[in-house]
Write the structure tokens for this entry.
Amino acid sequence: MKKNISIIIGGFYRSGTSLLRRLLDSHSRIHCGPEVKFFRDFYGDYQKDELRHVRLFSTLATLGLTEEEMLSIFGQAFVKSHEIAASKANKVRWADKNPENVLYLRQWDQLLPDGFIFLRILRDPLDTLASLKEIGFHKTVPADFADKVRLLKNFLDVGEAYVVENSERSVTLHYESIVQSPLTTLEYLFSWLGETFKPEVLERFSLLERGEGIEDPKVKMSQNIHAHSIGRWRRDLTKREIYIARSILYEKNEISSKRKKYFPLSFFSIK
């Protein structure tokens, strides 16, 4: 069943989704282009948008179309766009990569009633926050550090809930596993997807044929997968920021074994 089913990639900003999409797109059977912000535009999900009232989906509502009707019409066109792009690339399968896909998985269920595979990528939350602090993303992510942490927590919680409910068609990868043990990790991933692992994906992920668009600006400059960013939080986050992150993400009355499994041990040993 998995052989040709579509793949939906989600995680959080700066968690490795761009690297993962390039590795998938390097496979001879899978097309995974740069981000297409369909759901963000559909819901107007931006920090500040002074022109939101004149955007397409805001003005369409004045015709009397319901949200469900608009999602059906334009969602089908979005899916068709992926199918055409895959066909033009001579590939039989497509994947959509957006960090915020974790927030829209119920909508993906509507658009793909025959099912899809949810591919979630997780990264050490402190490294994620350190990377996010560097890059900014001010139109997408709150400026306040505590609000950044709360946003991360929401992504983690929503993604985990979906994985628990749909474990048979969800797979979780860790960024650290990809960069530290790429061969082993990718062999597992492609096998799980029902595909044959081809080592050349590790040589082709940085080529120009992977396309230009919205993604991590650093990933296309890397010729090789490396683990240099693991543990960057130790130099890039202040003690105050580490305390804030730990306080919000690790709440004693809420922590569970399933949350511990995607937080590294270092996170719990912070003083």
Summary: The longest helix spans residues 67-88. The beta strands are 7-10, 30-31, 93-97, 117-122, 170-174.
